[in-house]
Specification:
Oligomer: single chain
Order of helices and strands: HHHH
Strand content: under 5%
Number of strands: 0
Structural class: mainly alpha
Length: 97
């Protein structure tokens, strides 16, 4: 049977590499777990960025469409903000759930 001290001295390179690997994978500030979490967060943020870019493009198209024609702008203001002309009355009918 091998003496534990002899075993350690005989396999010191393998033990050192193993301990170093475990340290780097789990204990270090830049461990594999931390890098994996950061990668997932980056992936989520990129997906959110793509979504927001499409939303901004849609809003810019709507803005250009609204401001290109006065009739469309007037209709938008009347429907959304209940704007009216001086000689008009606006009645808002809300549906009950």
């Amino acid at each position: 049977m091998l003496n534990p001290l002899k075993y350690i001295t005989q396999y010191k390179f393998a033990l050192t590499v193993g301990l170093f690997s475990l340290w780097m994978l789990f204990v270090d500030d830049n461990s594999a777990l931390f890098i994996y979490k950061q990668y997932n967060e980056l992936k989520d943020l990129k997906a959110q960025e793509r979504f927001l870019k499409t939303e901004i493009d849609d809003m810019n198209r709507q803005k250009e469409d609204l401001f290109s024609d006065d009739d469309k702008l007037e209709r938008y203001a009347r429907e959304l903000y209940y704007f009216k002309k001086d000689n008009e009355d606006v009645y808002v009918i809300e549906k009950e759930d």
